[in-house]
Amino acid sequence: TFARYAMIDTRFFKFMRLIGGVRAGTFNQKLNTFDDALNKQVNTDNTYTDLNPSINYIISIDSKQNLRFCYSQTLNRPEYRELATVLFYDNDTRLNIYGNYNLSRALAQNYDFRYEYYPSAGQIISVSAFHKKIQNPIELVFDQSQTSVAFYNNALQSTISGIELEFRASFA
Length: 172
Prior knowledge:
4-stranded mixed beta sheet, mainly beta, 7-stranded antiparallel beta sheet
């Protein structure tokens, strides 16, 4: 992995703040293994170069309240066990799982809107809405031809949306 990062944190007027940045990274992942099903040596050599921007725009309503708008791009690289064509038993799922050397990394576009209220020092009450669009998510897929066997595969896309509530109190 070779990465560079640039960031800016600046205020506009007294009530607006912009925090932005970009991470440029190059990642190389190699795997050399033997695929029993194909009866051959498998060599994987994946190199990715990604620009992952992030921006937070914060509006201070007053000294105890903020509105926050966020965007970022993140990624999820396959782990070696997800790539390796080696069968292993997973105690949690009770499945025999094998990897897929053709997996690619997943890219996620993340959008967040958040209201924050700070009643006193060390305390917060917040409500957030989020939406994520994921390209090539890595999923565990059941093998239809075999009982209790699964493998990793990339789906085309997925979305995740939700609401998050946060409450933190200080009893000091």
